[in-house]
Write a structure and sequence with these properties.
By secondary structure, the chain is of the alpha/beta class. Helix 8 links the parallel strand 8 and strand 9. It is globular and about 60 Å long. It has a ten-stranded mixed beta sheet, with helices on both faces. The mean pLDDT is 96. It is built from 13 helices and twelve strands. The structure holds 3-isopropylmalic acid (IPM) and magnesium ion (MG).
């Protein structure tokens, strides 16, 4: 019998533990059905790790993740650590950034699909969001998030600060290749989003993406400026298939894109590197305002386990089973508070997970 795949579970802070627990129950049922047993290891990250160990990400946690087959991540952060100590060197969010960088997870896949049952819940008119099915690939280990220099310093006229946006050819190339490869599994269109009218990094980005595109004559490649794309994403979201963009643009655009799907709580993500190791997390944050109430939407976390099965464990059928079960639960009319229609009685985190599990069985 093959060794049980090892999954490191990092629930983090706020609603992270609640949605991760719900997702794990769904993952257990989905893997049980195909006779796979998972070996889970839990650890603390973010604010929880700051409280317990004084750091957001311990070196041994990173080492543990390197030996794993996949990482299931919740969310990190909260006012207790972020607002109370804005100048602190230890910040919950650094756990996530440390994992992305430390594990070389340069490609962040954020699929945005509007479930038919959710068309009415979208912030946009039904005809605008029906059949939306796009995949944003966000570069995840470069750009403004990580480039140096990055610091605050004093000047005779007061404090100043600098962040740096740097991209090298290999960094752009590898994420572009991932985009074109993924496009071949979909509708064979890549839209690369940049700010080439202003930024030097974007001009290099455009040159490199165009060169990579030549190796994929069967995939249509277009380029769009990020401001125009932000608009087109609302005007004609059905027009896009694969979208590839740099780190900060991708961060912003995927929050925008989540509004197509109805709510931030709906969207999963996969962060991948060169191999099959991946980190899977909902794109929402720790939502401290609703933490501990049992009302958080677990769908983003649950759909993240489908991505885990697909990209790290190569279990496409189980991945589709989970996606189908989520669809069925939504079709039956169940809604958590964030996606409920006015006057509708909402189910909690556990209730929604139960419905997905029932549909799986
Ligand atoms: C995301 C989040 C993170 C990011 C934060 C929590 C550091 O917004 O995953 O989109 O900016 O990448
Ligand atoms: Mg974000």
């Amino acid at each position: 019998m093959a060794a049980a795949p090892r999954i490191v579970v990092l629930p983090g802070d706020g609603i992270g533990p609640e949605v991760t627990q719900a997702a794990r129950r769904v993952l257990d049922v989905a893997t049980e059905r195909i006779g796979v047993r998972l070996d889970y290891v839990d650890d603390l990250v973010g604010g929880a790790a700051i409280d317990a160990y004084g750091v957001a990400l311990r070196p041994q946690t990173l080492r543990l993740c390197k030996t794993a087959d996949a990482i299931l991540f919740g969310a990190v952060g909260g006012p207790r650590w972020d607002d109370a100590a804005p100048d602190s060197k230890v910040r919950p969010g650094s756990a996530l950034l440390g994992l992305r960088k430390g594990l070389g997870l340069f490609a962040n896949l954020r699929p945005v699909r509007v479930d038919p049952a959710m068309v009415a819940t979208s912030a946009l008119r039904p005809e605008r969001v029906r059949d939306v099915d796009l995949l944003v690939i966000r570069e995840l280990t470069g750009g403004l998030y990580f480039s140096r220099p990055k610091r605050r310093y004093s000047t005779p006229r007061g404090e100043a600060a600098v962040d740096t946006m740097r991209y090298s050819t290999p960094e752009i190339e590898r994420v572009a290749v991932r985009a074109f490869e993924l496009a071949r599994m979909r509708r064979r269109q890549v839209c690369s989003v940049d700010k080439a009218n202003v930024l030097e990094t974007s001009r290099l980005w455009r040159v490199v993406v165009s060169r990579v595109a030549q190796g994929y004559p069967d995939v249509a490649c277009s380029h769009m400026l990020v401001d125009a794309f932000a608009m087109e994403l609302l005007r004609r979201p059905q027009a896009f298939d694969v979208v590839v963009t740099e780190n900060l643009f991708g961060d912003i655009l995927t929050d925008e894109a989540s509004m197509l799907a109805g709510a931030l709580g709906m969207l999963p993500s996969a962060s991948l590197g060169a191999g099959t190791l991946g980190l899977y997390e909902p794109i929402h944050g720790s939502a401290p305002d609703i933490a501990g109430k049992g009302i958080a939407n677990p769908i983003g976390a649950i759909l993240s386990t489908a991505l885990l099965l697909r990209w790290s464990l190569n279990r496409e059928e189980a991945a589709q089973a989970i996606e189908g079960a989520v669809s069925q639960a939504l079709a039956s009319g169940l809604r958590t508070a964030d996606i409920a229609t006015p006057g509708q009685r909402a189910v909690g985190t556990v209730g929604m997970a139960d419905a997905v599990i029932a549909a799986l069985r």
